[in-house]
Amino acid sequence: MSTGSATFETTANIISVNPTDGNNGPQWWLKCKFPWTKETYEDSVYLDQSAFKDEPSRGIYRVEVAFRSLKNKQDGGKHSGTHYWMNNYSFIKIVEQSGQMNTMPNNSSIWPGKEDEAARNSDSFTGNTGGAPTPTASSNGGHYDPAAPYDLLRDPNYGRIRGQCTNAVIAMIGHVPELLDSQGNPNWDMWTFYRDEFYNKFANVDITVYADGNEEPVAEPEAEEPAAPPAAPPAAPPAPPEHYCEVHGVGYNKYSTGYQHKVAGMEAWCHKDVDGIYDEQGNPVTEPTMSEELS
Predict the structure, then answer these.
(1) What is the phi/psi pair of residue 3, to 5°?
(2) What is the structure's pLDDT at 140?
(3) Does 279 map to a domain?
(4) CB contact at 8 A, 200 and 144
(5) Which of 62, 100, 119, 243 can bridge 95 by disulfide, Cβ–Cβ 3.0-4.6 Å?
(6) For residue 18, is it within any domain?
(7) Where a domain ends, among 125, 159, 185?
(8) Same domain, 56 and 120
């Protein structure tokens, strides 16, 4: 295994699999553990169903993976990526089932070539200071470069803008399915992703890494406001209920003896599909005419 290559082979314990929607269509959302995953955590891996047609089974597998993006810090920003656990990964291929997990690289393993940076980022390292960095292209796709000399947490506007971005994400609940998992609980990875996307726009600080040729996207021209649609025709009056007495203008009630209703002002009953009205003993009763009611 060459851990320094763009892709490498390792093992993954797939704990759960759920279908979800992605930017490129349906996906499988995997919760899994790699050899470097912290004991109390699980990693999320998203697989396009167009590439992985069959739903992956739970269990330990040999897998080929590739770096996807840097993980978010709980207090904002991105991890430096100096250690394996600081990165998100994509599955290139699920090779086969495995009897056991690899022991290396583990939670302490440093990404090849980042040994010096890992030493600088130890507890004794106080961090970089300076202005905003020049964007550099990265597979990070839409986030600032954490190695650049810009101290995000010292930005006086950071807390205010971050709060606005969090509120914006809250307003998106119900409109963006991936903000919640299949049980309806918050998907914190996606919350943080969208919060950071909003921050990049709100802050107007040149910390964004653009995916296509490192060029800032150009806003599309505003479309003309469409003409108001024609007024809808008036709705047709609702049809009377299925069990409705046209004679007395009321609905029938269902009883063990059929559909019937009591005639107003009388101890008599009108039965559906039966002429006349009857008292409780089943004897016919004469209903008074309009002139009799007025006399």
Answers:
(1) -75, -15
(2) 38
(3) yes
(4) yes
(5) 62
(6) yes
(7) 125
(8) yes
* Tens digits of residue pLDDT in 242-277: 778 877 878 888 877 788 888 887 888 888 888 888
Q: How far apart are CA 21 and CA 41, in angstroms?
A: 23
Q: Is residue 234 part of a domain?
A: no
Could you give the residue ranges of the DSSP H alpha helices within 103-154? Answer: 115-120
pLDDT digits (tens, 9 = 90+) for 89-118: 999 999 999 989 999 999 889 988 888 888
Indicate if 186 and 266 belong to the same structural domain. no
Residues 12 and 87 in one domain: yes
Peptide bond preceding 105 in cis form (omega within 30 of 0): yes
The predicted model scores a pTM of: 0.43
- Write the CA distances from 107 to 114, 120, 175, integer angstroms: 15, 18, 36
Same domain for 19 and 95?
yes
In this prediction, residues 69-73 reach a mean pLDDT of: 87
**CA distance linking residue 199 with residue 218, whole number of Å:** 18
Q: Which of 139, 164, 161, 165 is nearest to 152 (CA)?
A: 161
Question: Which tokens hold the place of 257?
Answer: 């003896």
For the record, the structure tokens of 194 come out as 């969208």
Distance of CA 259 to the CA centre of its chain: 50
Q: How confident is the model at residue 46 (pLDDT cuts 50, 70, 90)?
A: very high
Element (H, E) at 188: helix 188-203
The dihedrals phi and psi of 119, each to the nearest 5 degrees, come to -65, -40
In total, how many domains does the chain have? 3
49/56 Cα distance (integer angstroms):
10
pLDDT tier for residue 155 given thresholds of 50, 70 and 90: low
Show the domain range for 167.
126-216
Of the chain, the percentage scoring pLDDT greater than 90 comes to 25
Both tokens of 75, joined, read 């207090």
